[in-house]
Design goal:
It holds the Pfam family DRTGG. By secondary structure, this protein is an alpha/beta fold. The protein has 5 helices and 7 strands, in the order βαβββαβαβαβα. It has a single domain (about 5-110), classed as HprK N-terminal domain-like (Udp-n-acetylmuramoylalanyl-d-glutamate--2,6- Diaminopimelate Ligase, Chain: A, domain 1), CATH 3.40.1390. The longest helix is centred in the last third of the chain and has 11 residues, at about 100-110. The mean pLDDT is about 95.
Length: about 110
């Protein structure tokens, strides 16, 4: 089963912040160090992080991430939300810890 960003946006455990373009979710990448994300995240990854600023959106664009899932109850900065709208990147948030959020994405995607 292929998971899409729209399916993540409709998951009750995740709150949609910005819809973005519908894209397939190919994998999951968990990291808060932007330089690592730029070099190691793969195109189509759901990036799970606690970084909700405009720089995170820029890195997600460079890495061609499918979406950003903000964990631990963190909030996106207004500038990040505006930039994500411009770039077509889906933004979601959750109260779940990073590990549990990533596991839920994996389960929703049938093991990705």
């Amino acid at each position: 089963m292929k998971l899409t960003t729209q399916e993540l946006l409709s998951c009750p455990s995740f709150s949609p912040v910005c819809g973005g373009e519908e894209r397939p979710v190919e994998g999951i990448y968990c990291c808060d160090l932007l330089s690592l994300v730029m070099g190691r995240a793969k195109a189509g990854d759901c990036w799970v992080t606690v970084m909700g600023n405009v720089n995170a959106v820029a890195v997600a664009t460079l890495a061609d991430a499918a979406c950003i899932l903000l964990a631990e109850g963190m909030a996106f900065d207004p500038a990040a939300v505006e930039r994500a709208r411009q770039q077509g990147i889906a933004l979601l948030r959750t109260e779940l810890p990073v590990y549990e959020a990533a596991r839920l994405v994996e389960q929703l995607g049938g093991g990705l």
